[in-house]
Specification:
By secondary structure, this protein is α/β, with parallel strands linked by helices. The chain has twelve helices and five strands.
Amino acid sequence: MSPKPKKRREEGRSPSAAKLRLLKRLRCTLRYEKKAWAEGAKLVAGVDEVGRGSLFGCVVAAAVILDPSYRIRGLRDSKLLPRERREVLAQRIREHCLGYAIAAVDAARIDQINIYYASKLAMLEAVRALQPTPDHLLIDALRIDYDLPQQPIIHGDALSPSIAAASILAKVERDRLIAEWDPIFPAYGLASNKGYSTPKHIAALREFGPSPLHRQSFAPVWNAPVPQEVLAFMLEENAPEPLVDEEALQASTLP
């Protein structure tokens, strides 16, 4: 007997599609915040990072303390929100939260310490920069080396509004940074893929090799068959001679 159509559809889903379907089912409520408040916490910060799976650029983290007296409607995992909605919510978060901070760890550091520790470092730096200082942390899936009560929550950005708010701020900021690099490295389609391993991005890596801002420790990058592209200003031996104002030079050497 052939499997039922519904079962065949389930089996045909990619892991990423299945995960998104799961996230859409989860409810983003104040359950974890209320538990921390009931235990005596006053300033509960949500912490999250974005860009962990990207092949290009930095990983960005944010920490946010929401105002318990002001409800921001529509907070949920940033991956489930369209860009325009994320930007609207990011503005509301910045305007109405008690405090927020954003931190980034660049590609070179990611290659040096690996993406797991780089993600934790970005989170730690965001928490350290947060004002006012939180007294309890809700973190998406991880613990960080910080002397505060903290609770790691699997799928936290889909379950906790504080973590969702951090996810949204980090996502909006990282997208902004990647957009600034897109015209510098137009071959990779960064504006659309944000550095993730889409077919176009992988094809560009195979044709042109990685840029200096690609994560060299990631397999699709170090497997690229051509040498790394370098920026013109890095090729000092090929750079044109600088223009010199002879009169200014002479004036600077006069007693």
